[in-house]
């Protein structure tokens, strides 16, 4: 059971209060009519499925009803950060990779 | 005294409270403080069950959670419980117990010949190999296997007990109240943090309760009592005995099962029998201890062969010595303590057989000083006996323990205490995905790295001395609580010799021909079986586990896994570290389904949502239907009516006069802001820019893939204020959908959404007389056809209540919906019933609503659509705005090649050729009923009803290219062999011009 | 914008969500006491907390500053404002005054981007108290209601059994809960069951 910090309620809450709502930072094409079927298909159906760092949206359904972003390790379920809608992550697979060069020894994989 | 193995004094039992209990039909005596296992041993009961595969006689091996053999069937009738370990069952007066298997009894088991004769014929993978083919026989095989192999029986009656759950939060959670756990809890508790400490036993103390050691000069058990008293006295510390932390989940979430009344009676007299604690801890300290390993030698499963520390525990804690002539076989110093304990209890120690050649620790010295014979460099290679051990063949071993260096001799005995080293209890540490790591100096797996806020203390880290455990506990407690402590315990246990790692005692014959050398007692896995699996090509330890079943079941490899993995490693010529270990899943020990269900059963299983008018529906005999979580009136039967007769009456009332429906469950979303229109333009298929205040419009909502997801009518209350309705089941999803787009893509739009589903009660009344009913109650709104047109909205007073009045129709008749604040909903309903009485106003339910709307060809999103239907597929292109500026959600997908195909399944009307037929919903549709199977499926029937007003069955369904097939005949083959023919037609069966609702 | 004020004059017209449970007192020693504070005015308020014009307009009408900090409330006599999210509040005012309050708020705010929605009938305010309260809450909600985490005045929206609630701790240690009308029967069934070992009194 995850324990997730809601950036709007400003405290960690139990997973029961939230719903997972998919990959974060997928932007709707500004002019859908102008893009190819393939590009539209990518937007509709294709999602990344990384083993490791993933940026995803969660909905605080039983709480403040805000959507927000979570940087989470899909393997260890460690949550690295949560951040408000419209913001960008400060922790990514890249920054983690740089850090792990130093401290990989203790990784839970 | 019938308790032949009971000591006259000592132990933590209360001899003033004798208790009688039964086992396999015989009555025995025990004492308060006994476990079922200690009481059975006290009475000299040897055989407690039969083994899983070979049906061998089995006795008690351990004294706690590690026990693989003594699985019991407790209690009788509907209270019966399968598979608790006798070692964990507290004795109470009148306890009824029995073996879980063995037929006709565990003592005389007719299946044993199968094990004896079939031993060679039942190698590992036996079931896979033997019952593989033919596949259709599997069901038959399975019945036989289950009967022969099962453990325990469930009652088929309802469970007489209740169970509940608590959500618990703390700063520090300590799992295990042995020396390390108690020390940790003391340290964390003294800091003032919120601390919870759980232990599966009835008493705190763990190994301290059976120890002859001292803590800072105080007798170990007395120290445990003092410390527990201090913990109980701290207001910030919750002390929970009889509570097993069985699962450790992500982000320091621990589930623990508290057995509240299992030690008192079969069924709880009051309150819950068991309570599940769902614990969120900031810090978790695992002080789960270690389990002693048995030694693997021939016939090592005979009753009378027990773990050495269990023998010590039975002697010191329960005052029970489970044998008279005892051999201790050990690979380390702790076995010597058992020899000393046996001797002190007045029984004979035949010899301590130590695989090491030159042991010299403190306890070794003490044993020698006590005159106990010590055979170093020897091992028990085979036990003798049939229903109980009667002797042991002891033979000399080389330095490594791998080879015999001489011939053996036979020593007679009735108890072999085995001390094969210790395996840290890493189970919980694995539950969150952490892999244990092998440590050669410990000769065991210890918890691996983790991302949890987890601390370890005591034997779980492979440090087995008492002082080490206590001091590690203090350290862990301080680390978890963020304090510092200089406290150090002294137990005078510094000198202890090194242990030898010995996982399989060699025999004169190879394992395949030696007497069975058991590794996993519960699953009957032998050394030979594991070697065979490795030779057959199973190299991954996970595959070996699944092929041999090692570590399966309720046992979870507690005693057997390390020996088994070492044997695999040796067979594969690898190190144990290279071979690795399987990991453990929750639950550590079995958990009742009752506890997992808690109180979420019966009427509390799923919330039933009720409208304000629910009491009226109940009082008037409504039959209810579940719509999402709502209980909606399905139909209102009158005495003597069949359901169809009720529906016919209700539908005709609407068509001919007036009927009334509780439509309160429709989702309602209040939308305010100057960009509300623009927002509606983006989320609905049609245009909202010109909808005037006082007007309503039907809208279709699509997902971005162009498929219908919800629909409903939205009213313009004023330029910046709209009221959206959704389907009854879709309200939360639609609100979440609107918020999603507003919060993620279009935050610049000035609009707010608020759910008002529960705020408004909705009375929908339909039929040619509906206006007359409303006119009787409403005087301040001009309800005439000219003044209040179809799809108009007005505010006004109805029955003295300020109301929102909508002229909308889901029946095809003249129809009004009156919305009032739900506090007044029941009153409004009653007023409408009164006003409608002269017109025979008829309450109707969802089923008649479905018939009436289907007669009009109106869809139900989620019944006629299934997430794969576009508006065009539903022949609802009229509801799609073609010239909207903003590319509304889903629009772009219309031109995707797949969405634009002409032969997509389309929703059409279906008129049965035989007018008396109602085609079952869900029927598949084919064009040629004579086509051989597999037939070409053209679609399926989504809605189908008897229409009393039309006098024939009607249906809607999806058909490939259906819009171009009007007039064609389709067929619906039925399971009973009938083939029902229907003609494709317009789905609008009734009043296609809409004269009625426009009246 | 216009709003419909609720007519609260006629007693028999109105039924609160929990009205039919008033007789269910089943214990002389009520370890749990449930009191429905029925027919209060509930207004959902939306607006921009960073806009002074908005916050001061609200304060001028309510006589108390809007709580801007997460999970807090502000009380003025019998009226209370709950923080629900950074731009959403719940106003609970005296029975029957919600129409007036809404009108005053709209007047004070002019053409600001706000929303006010009357939800008085869609939910009800319930107070739970008694010696068994702490454990009853542990049975019912995943949120940590211990005083160290849930001081008086704090407001939390969370789960309650299988429904949701907005909870506010009072100075006397009792808990106010906002319960949705359609879930109120389920709420009461749950409450009856969960309080069985303590006794339940309906005040």
Features:
heterotrimer; B: 999 residues; alpha+beta; Ubiquitin-like (UB roll); FAD/NAD(P)-binding domain; 7 domains; 7-stranded mixed beta sheet; 6-stranded mixed beta sheet; 25 helices; 49 strands; 22% helix; C: 203 residues; Gyrase A, domain 2; 5-stranded antiparallel beta sheet; 4 helices; 11 strands; globular; disordered N terminus
What kind of oligomer do you see?
Answer: heterotrimer
Instruction: Tally the beta strands of chain A.
Output: 6
Tally of distinct domains of chain C: 1
Question: Can you tell me the number of structural domains of chain A?
Answer: 1
- Gyration radius of chain A (Cα, Å) is 16 Å
Number of helices of chain C: 4
**Widest sheet of chain C: strand order?**
8-9-10-7-1-11
Q: Mean of residue pLDDT of chain C?
A: 91
Going by helix content, strand content and strand pairing, the class of chain C is alpha+beta
CATH class of chain A: Alpha Beta
Low-confidence region ranges of chain A: none
Strand order of the largest sheet of chain A: 3-4-5-6
Helix content of chain A: 10-25%
Could you tell me how far the N terminus lies from the C terminus of chain C, measured between alpha carbons in angstroms? Answer: 39 Å
Structural notes for this entry:
- The complex is a heterotrimer of chains A (109), B (999) and C (203).
- Chain A is an alpha+beta fold.
- Chain A has helices at residues 37-45, 93-103; strands at residues 3-6, 11-14, 19-23, 53-59, 67-73, 79-84.
- Chain A has one domain (3-106): Folate-binding fold, CATH 3.30.2270.
- Helix content of chain A is 18%, strand content 30%.
- Chain A has a four-stranded antiparallel β-sheet, with no helix packed on it. A two-stranded antiparallel ribbon of chain A has the order 1-2.
- In chain A, a hairpin with a 7-residue loop joins strand 4 and strand 5 (67-73).
- The longest helix of chain A has 11 residues, at 93-103.
- The two termini of chain A are 19 Å apart.
- With 999 residues, chain B is α+β, with helices and mostly antiparallel strands.
- Chain B folds into seven domains: 14-122, 2Fe-2S iron-sulphur cluster binding domain, sarcosine oxidase, alpha subunit, N-terminal domain (Ubiquitin-like (UB roll)); 163-290 and 424-481, 3-Layer(bba) Sandwich (FAD/NAD(P)-binding domain); 294-420, 3-Layer(bba) Sandwich (FAD/NAD(P)-binding domain); 509-581, Arc Repressor Mutant, subunit A (Orthogonal Bundle), CATH 1.10.10.1100; 667-755, Aminomethyltransferase beta-barrel domains (Alpha-Beta Plaits), CATH 3.30.70.1400; 759-844, Gyrase A, domain 2 (2-Layer Sandwich); 898-998, Beta Barrel (Elongation Factor Tu (Ef-tu), domain 3).
- Chain B has 25 helices and 49 strands.
- In chain B, strands 8, 9, 12, 13, 14, 15 and 28 form a seven-stranded mixed β-sheet that branches.
- In chain B, helix 7 packs parallel to helix 8.
- The mean pLDDT of chain B is 94.
- With 203 residues, chain C is α+β, with helices and mostly antiparallel strands.
- Chain C has a six-stranded mixed β-sheet, with helices on one face.
- In chain C, a hairpin with a 5-residue loop joins strand 9 (163-169) and strand 10.
- In chain C, helix 1 packs antiparallel against helix 2 (98-109).
- The radius of gyration of chain C is 17 Å and the shape is globular.
- The model of chain C is unreliable at 1-10 (pLDDT under 50).
- The interface between B and C is large, with 55 and 53 residues.
């Amino acid at each position: 059971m995850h324990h997730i910090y809601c950036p709007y309620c400003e405290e960690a809450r139990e997973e029961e209060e939230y719903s997972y709502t998919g990959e974060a930072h997928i932007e709707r094409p500004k002019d859908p009519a102008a893009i190819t079927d393939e590009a539209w298909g990518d937007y509709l159906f294709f999602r990344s499925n990384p083993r490791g760092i993933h940026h995803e949206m969660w909905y605080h359904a039983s709480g403040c009803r805000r959507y927000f972003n979570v940087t989470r390790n899909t393997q260890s379920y460690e949550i690295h950060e949560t951040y408000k809608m419209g913001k960008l992550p400060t922790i990514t697979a890249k920054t983690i990779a740089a850090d792990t060069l130093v401290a990989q020894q203790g990784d839970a994989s | 005294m019938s308790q032949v193995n009971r000591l006259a004094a000592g132990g933590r039992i209360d001899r003033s409270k004798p208790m009688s209990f039964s086992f396999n039909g015989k009555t025995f005596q025990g004492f308060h403080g006994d476990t079922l296992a200690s009481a059975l041993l006290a009475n000299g009961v040897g055989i407690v069950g039969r083994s899983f595969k070979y049906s061998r006689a089995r006795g008690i091996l351990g004294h706690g959670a590690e026990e693989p053999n003594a699985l019991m069937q407790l209690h009788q009738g509907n209270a019966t419980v399968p598979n608790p370990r006798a070692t964990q069952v507290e004795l109470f007066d009148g306890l009824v117990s029995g073996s879980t298997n063995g037929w006709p009894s565990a003592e005389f088991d007719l299946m044993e010949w199968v094990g004896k004769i079939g031993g060679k014929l039942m190698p590992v993978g036996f079931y896979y190999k033997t019952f593989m083919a033919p596949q259709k026989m599997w069901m038959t095989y399975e019945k036989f296997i289950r009967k022969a192999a099962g453990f325990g029986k469930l009652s088929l009656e309802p469970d007489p007990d209740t169970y509940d759950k608590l959500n618990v939060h703390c700063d520090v959670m300590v799992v295990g109240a042995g020396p390390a756990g108690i020390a940790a809890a003391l340290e964390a508790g003294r800091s003032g943090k919120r601390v919870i400490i759980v232990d599966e036993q009835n008493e705190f103390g763990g190994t301290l309760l059976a120890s002859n050691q001292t803590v800072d000069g105080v007798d170990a058990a007395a120290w445990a009592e003092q410390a527990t008293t201090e913990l109980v006295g701290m207001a910030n510390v919750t002390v929970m005995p009889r509570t097993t932390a069985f699962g450790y989940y992500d982000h320091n979430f621990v589930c623990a099962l508290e057995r509240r009344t299992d030690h008192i009676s079969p069924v709880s007299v009051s309150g819950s029998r068991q309570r599940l604690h769902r614990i969120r801890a900031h810090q978790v300290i695992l002080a789960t201890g270690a389990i002693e390993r048995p030694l693997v030698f021939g016939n090592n499963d005979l009753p009378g062969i027990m773990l050495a520390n269990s023998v010590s525990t039975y002697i010191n804690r329960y005052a029970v010595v489970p044998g008279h002539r005892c051999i201790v076989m050990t690979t380390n110093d702790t076995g010597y303590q058992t020899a000393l304990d046996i001797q002190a209890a007045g029984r004979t120690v035949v010899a301590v057989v130590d695989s090491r050649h030159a042991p010299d620790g403190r306890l070794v010295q003490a044993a020698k000083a006590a005159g106990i014979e010590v055979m170093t460099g020897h091992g028990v290679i085979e036990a003798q006996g049939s229903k109980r051990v009667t002797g042991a063949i002891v033979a000399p071993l080389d330095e490594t323990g791998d080879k015999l260096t001489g011939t053996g001799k036979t020593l007679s005995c009735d108890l072999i205490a085995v001390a094969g080293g210790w395996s840290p209890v890493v189970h919980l540490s694995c539950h969150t995905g952490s892999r244990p790591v092998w440590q050669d100096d410990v000769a065991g797996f210890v918890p691996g790295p983790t991302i949890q806020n987890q601390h370890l203390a005591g034997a779980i880290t492979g440090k087995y001395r008492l002082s080490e455990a206590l001091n590690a506990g203090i350290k862990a407690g301080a680390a978890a609580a963020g304090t510092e402590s200089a406290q150090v315990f002294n137990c005078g246990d510094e000198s202890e010799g090194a242990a030898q790692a010995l996982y399989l005692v060699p025999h004169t014959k190879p394992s395949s021909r030696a007497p069975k050398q058991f590794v996993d007692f519960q699953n009957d896995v032998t050394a030979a079986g594991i070697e065979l699996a490795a030779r057959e090509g199973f190299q991954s330890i996970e595959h070996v586990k699944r092929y041999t079943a090692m570590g399966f079941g309720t046992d979870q490899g507690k005693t057997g896994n390390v020996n088994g993995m070492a044997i695999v490693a040796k067979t594969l010529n690898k190190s144990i570290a290279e071979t690795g270990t399987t990991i453990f899943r929750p639950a550590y020990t079995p958990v009742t389904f009752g506890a997992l269900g808690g109180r979420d059963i019966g009427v509390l299983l799923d919330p039933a949502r009720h409208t304000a008018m629910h009491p009226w529906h109940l009082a008037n005999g409504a039959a209810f239907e579940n719509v999402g979580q709502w209980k909606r009136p399905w139909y209102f039967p009158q005495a003597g009516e069949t359901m169809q007769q009720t529906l016919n009456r209700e539908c005709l009332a609407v068509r001919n006069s007036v009927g009334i429906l509780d439509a309160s469950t429709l989702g309602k979303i209040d939308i305010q802001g100057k960009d509300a229109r623009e927002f509606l333009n983006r989320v609905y298929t049609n245009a909202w820019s010109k909808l005037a205040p006082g007007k309503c419009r039907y809208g279709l909502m699509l997902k971005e893939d162009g498929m219908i997801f919800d629909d409903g009518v939205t009213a313009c209350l004023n330029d910046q204020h709209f009221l959206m309705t959704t389907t009854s089941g879709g309200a939360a999803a639609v609100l979440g959908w609107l918020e999603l787009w507003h919060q993620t893509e279009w935050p610049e739009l000035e609009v707010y959404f608020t759910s008002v589903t529960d705020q408004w009660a909705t009375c929908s009344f339909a039929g040619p007389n509906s206006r007359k009913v409303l006119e009787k109650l409403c005087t301040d709104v001009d309800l005439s056809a000219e003044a209040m047109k179809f799809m108009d909205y007005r505010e006004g007073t109805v029955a003295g209540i300020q109301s929102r009045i909508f002229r909308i129709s889901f029946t095809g008749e003249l129809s009004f919906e009156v919305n009032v604040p739900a506090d007044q909903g029941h009153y409004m309903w009653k007023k409408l019933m009164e006003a409608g009485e002269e017109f025979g106003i008829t309450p109707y339910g969802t089923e008649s609503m479905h018939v009436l709307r289907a007669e009009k060809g109106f869809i139900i999103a989620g019944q006629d659509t299934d997430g794969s239907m576009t508006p065009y597929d539903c022949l609802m292109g009229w509801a799609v705005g073609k010239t909207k500026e903003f590319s509304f959600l889903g629009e772009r997908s219309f031109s995707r090649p797949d969405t634009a195909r002409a032969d997509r399944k389309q929703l059409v009307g279906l008129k049965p050729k035989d007018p008396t037929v109602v085609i079952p919903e869900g029927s598949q549709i084919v064009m040629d009923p004579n086509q051989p199977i597999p037939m070409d499926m053209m679609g399926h029937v989504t809605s189908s009803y008897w229409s009393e007003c039309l006098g024939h069955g009607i249906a809607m369904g999806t058909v490939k290219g259906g819009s171009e097939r009007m007039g064609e005949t389709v067929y619906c083959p039925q399971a009973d062999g009938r083939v029902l023919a229907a003609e494709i037609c317009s789905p609008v069966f009734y009043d296609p011009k809409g004269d009625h609702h426009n009246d | 914008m216009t709003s419909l004020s609720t007519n609260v004059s006629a007693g028999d017209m109105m039924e609160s969500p929990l009205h039919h449970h008033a007789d269910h007192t089943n214990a002389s020693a009520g370890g749990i006491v449930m009191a429905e504070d029925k027919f209060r005015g509930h207004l959902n308020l939306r607006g921009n907390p960073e806009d002074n014009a908005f916050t001061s307009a609200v304060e001028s009408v309510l006589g108390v500053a809007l709580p801007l900090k997460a999970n807090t409330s502000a009380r003025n006599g019998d009226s209370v404002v709950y923080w629900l999210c950074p731009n959403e509040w719940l106003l609970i005012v005296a029975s029957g005054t919600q129409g007036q309050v809404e009108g005053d708020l709209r007047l004070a705010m002019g053409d600001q981007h706000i929303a006010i929605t009357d939800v008085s009938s869609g939910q009800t305010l319930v107070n739970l108290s008694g010696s068994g309260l702490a454990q009853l809450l542990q049975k019912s909600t995943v949120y940590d209601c211990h005083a160290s985490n849930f001081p008086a005045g704090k407001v939390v929206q969370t789960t309650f059994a299988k429904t949701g609630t907005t909870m506010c701790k009072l100075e006397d240690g009792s808990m106010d809960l906002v319960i949705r009308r359609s879930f109120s029967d389920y709420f009461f069934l749950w409450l009856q069951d969960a309080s069985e070992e303590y006794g339940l009194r309906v005040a």
